[in-house]
Design goal:
It contains six helices and no strands. The chain is mainly alpha-helical. About 4% of the residues have low confidence.
Length: 189
């Protein structure tokens, strides 16, 4: 039994069934959480060093790095059974959607900074940092995540059950006995 199935078996039955039914979305969320951490680390590493005056550029670069990581994790884990396109076509669609996703992710931060004026000296450094985090790392990421989930399913990985999933959780069907026979258990079975 796989680790994920053992973990799900420790949850309440209704929750386990719900998570198994929406396994793809749950996996997408886990990959998204990991890539969020990648984005956060790269963004702040850039902002605290070479791009301290360019927060939108730092966030954009961080999203590009996270998008590359995301492609491999989503293709091989989240959407493992989906496909329907040749690999190069799939990759080009993925890159196009992620480019749009990066724009969606960066747009709230750009609006906060350059339209609403939430930057120093108009506001304090604390307000600027809180605004950057709320608009860039929270709102932008949430909007981009919803857009990407929809777009990946619709265009990049459009067909379900195209590629086989090894060890996919299946509920075993009960054995059917012919009428009039008695089921016997064999020793050691």
């Amino acid at each position: 039994m796989r680790l994920t199935d053992r973990a799900l078996n420790h949850l309440p039955t209704r929750l386990a069934i719900l998570l198994r039914r929406h396994r793809e979305t749950v996996k997408f969320g886990i990959v998204g959480g990991f890539c969020y951490a990648v984005t956060l680390l790269v963004n702040y590493a850039l902002r605290l060093t070479v791009l301290d005056e360019k927060p939108v550029t730092a966030l954009t670069i961080a999203n590009v790095v996270a998008s590359v990581v995301s492609y491999f994790l989503n293709r091989e884990w989240s959407f493992r059974t989906r496909g329907g396109r040749r690999r190069h076509h799939e990759l080009m669609l993925y890159l196009a959607i992620n480019t749009a996703g990066i724009v969606v992710n960066s747009a709230p931060l750009w609006l906060a900074r350059y339209v609403f004026g939430l930057q120093h000296p108009a506001v304090s450094n604390l307000v600027e940092e809180l605004s950057d985090f709320a608009f860039g790392m929270v709102l932008g990421t949430l909007l981009a995540m919803l857009f990407r989930l929809w777009a990946y399913r619709a265009w990049v990985f459009p067909h379900d059950d195209v590629r086989p999933a090894p060890n996919r959780y299946e509920v075993p069907a009960p054995a059917v006995q012919p009428a009039g026979t008695v089921a016997t258990e064999t020793p050691g079975a």
